[in-house]
Amino acid sequence: MFTIAKYKKYTKGLLASIGVAIVSFTITEFISFSTATVAIILGMIVGNYFYKTFHAEGSTFKSGVKFAEKDLLMFAIALMGINLNFTMLANLGIKTILMIIVGMAFTILMGLLLGKLFKLNPKLSLMIGIGNGVCGSSAIAATAGVAKVNSSDVGISIALVNLMGTIGIFLVPFLAHLLGFSDIDAGIYTGNTLQAVGQAVAAGFSISNEAGHYATVVKMGRVLLLLPLVFILIYIALRESKKKSEEAGEKVKVGIPSFSFILWFVFFSVIASLELLPKELELLIGMVSHYITLIAMSAIGLMIHFRTIMKSAGTAFKVSSLLFALQLIFSGLLLKFL
Length: 338
Prior knowledge:
Blueprint: H1 4-8, H2 11-27, H3 35-49, H4 51-55, H5 62-80, H6 94-117, H7 122-133, H8 137-147, H9 151-178, H10 183-191, H11 197-207, H12 209-224, H13 226-247, H14 259-274, H15 279-302, H16 306-337
């Protein structure tokens, strides 16, 4: 049963997360950078400067920040399904769809392989691979709960993936020109490599209107693969949980606590695909999802300790940079030879 008293303990931490989100949003009005990344970085600065306020045992802020970090994020991801209109697949040919699937699988698997090679935390490697391979911050946020990834790894992966994407806005059009791609191929190349939708759109239209259109459609095709990816991760998580239970000789009992948000995610994506709601309402739901995600990203930043970041950030940067380079090379080869 909903009661105000039950959620009163979250007030201070929630307000702190909202405050960081508002400042982050204001900052990005003046600089061209991902609001999610700015929110995480600003949250980290505030959280570490006032370390005892947010991290000390018995802190009156801690429970509210954790509520924003987990519960609000799950709610935002559920609403995010409204952005997945599967009828857009009709605008992509079979060849392009295969290219997107192969490119995504390659990027995620190479992320895991590079992580193993550089002895990086496997879950951080997975998040970097998913962020690069699917749709940046949204993909990381949507899959982190299922994969049970901690806040520090979520924060690092989002920051690095967005950094690569920002560099890519300028790098990818240059590479497309260097490789002699037509406007159509340049658009496909852009949509199949850049991390966030905004990055792909910006880079595509910097080449031409035609390239921008193809970059947008291909990028949305990658976004649509988020749903099957989530279900693959759920299957893997259930299988691993079952295996551990059997090895421990315990009664097999598996489940994912955050499974309900996936069902709502599917529900909203079906609503969008069937066009059951007015476009204005869909846009409003998408906007609410965006702002709540920003609050959750701020909360994630508030809970990250600089010492934790320093342990893995350098190696994670190497993995992320090499992965993006391999992704660009692989997609270029696919376009040249398919």
